[in-house]
Amino acid sequence: MNIALLFGGKSGEHEVSLLSASSVARNIDSKKFKVVPIGISKKGIWFLQSDEELERVRSNEKNSFSIIEDEKNIVSVIPGRGKNSFCMGSTTLEIDAVFPCVHGTNCEDGILQGLLESAGIPYVGCSVAASALTMDKEKTKQIWQNAGLPVVPYFCIRRADLNDGAAYKKITEEAIAKFGFPLFIKPCNAGSSVGAAKATNTQELATALDEAFLWDNKVLIEKSIDAREIECSVTGNATIQNEKSACGKVVAYIPGEILPKHDFYDYDAKYIDPDGAILKIPAELPKAQIEEIRTLAQNAYKVLDCSGLSRVDFFIDKNSGELFLNEINVLPGFTSISMFPKMCEAGGLKYGQLITLLIEEALEVFEQKQTLLTSR
Predict the structure, then answer these.
(1) How far apart are CA 248 and CA 361, in angstroms?
(2) pLDDT score recorded for residue 279
(3) What pLDDT does 105 receive?
């Protein structure tokens, strides 16, 4: 079975994607699946990568993909042709399913998923709607709040407010008055802590907002909680959940805890600095609280109609013990130091088995969707 492994992308998390894809390429079951590596440049152009590049990555755990931008290897996607949708010039690349090992805007926000839907090909991960919703942290919080789930208190400020001095002043003053300092600032539609910062005074707040608006047109100002950072991996299909199918069943795995050595769990701590954080799996929590987190992770996943995989992030207030949903990442990192696969492994699902499960689930979701009517 031919699996297109997509990586790179027109995203602030381009480099992270190269690391994730490299790890997937090394751990996928090569007896079941043939990897077709396709790198997406920072300009958004797709390039087929050579078998030699794939073998170079597989030969050493320290190697990661480099996107070779050879114009004769540009890949196009033609809608409606199913497994024959991927073309390189006059050559058709027969693809049975797609593993999008990409992160961030233009990659996990529904844009890529819409393209693959129009092509008519199975892909790992959430639907177009769920991908778009979960990428937008404000909309995610609104849906969770509507479902009665606990979220970190926040204000959302838009570029329109930034361009209106009075509106900008009102929102920032309200945030300071309600939450006090420190405040946490992050773009609504970015991941891996790109553009995120902590502000301890008004000048730092202004600087952090300026930086965040370089990455998105909406920015969250959140109450900064002195918290333990807990994460929980979830797999399965929330919409067509089938308890008889290992692929369809929604499963929350053993929660882990992030103990950052940086000021907070920033981009460097997640992907660059191997000593940037201590990852504790399982989290040192009472059994009852671990089950509470797993249940809440499942509920947070289900109410957003997620499928495939997600990492649900929590805060536990060190002072009050209160539990908050922080955010959800529907295409979480797959690097060697990433929490998502490590938590699955702690729950008994090894890395290679996880990759197989996700591909099989993608095929099952696609097959079920083909039974739906599209016309009378």
Answers:
(1) 7
(2) 87
(3) 83
Q: List pLDDT tens digits, range 17-42.
A: 999 999 999 999 999 999 999 999 99
Residue with tokens 């090569």: 30
Predicted TM-score (pTM) of the model is: 0.91
SS (H, E, C) the chain: CEEEEEEECCCCCHHHHHHHHHHHHHHCCCCCCEEEEEEECCCCCEEECCHHHHHHHHHCCCCCCCCCCCHHHECEECCCCHHHCEEECCEEECCCEEEECCCCCCCCCCHHHHHHHHHCCCECCCCHHHHHHHHCHHHHHHHHHHCCCCECCEEEEEHHHHCCHHHHHHHHHHHHHHHCCCEEEEECCCCCCCCCEEECCHHHHHHHHHHHCCCCCEEEEEECCCEEEEEEEEEEECCCCCCCCCCCCCEECCCEEEEECCCCCCHHHHHHCCCCEEEECCCCCCHHHHHHHHHHHHHHHHHCCCEEEEEEEEEEECCCCCEEEEEEECCCCCCCCCHHHHHHHHCCCCHHHHHHHHHHHHHHHHHHHCCCCCCC
Contact, 254 vs 293, CB < 8 A? no
Dihedral of the alpha carbons of 158, 297, 16, 34, in degrees to the nearest 10: -130
* Tokens 């950072």 found at: 229
Residue 33 tokens read as: 């699946």
CA-CA distance, 8 to 18, in Å (whole number)? Answer: 6
CA-nearest of 253, 254, 247 to 358 is 247
Q: Which two tokens stand for residue 34?
A: 């043939």
Enumerate residues 6+ apart whose C-beta is below 8 A from 197. Answer: 184, 185, 186, 204, 207, 208, 211, 212
What is the C-alpha separation between 325 and 249, in angstroms, rounded? 22
The closest of 294, 143, 296, 307 to 240, measured between CA atoms, is: 307
Tokens of 79: 């809608």
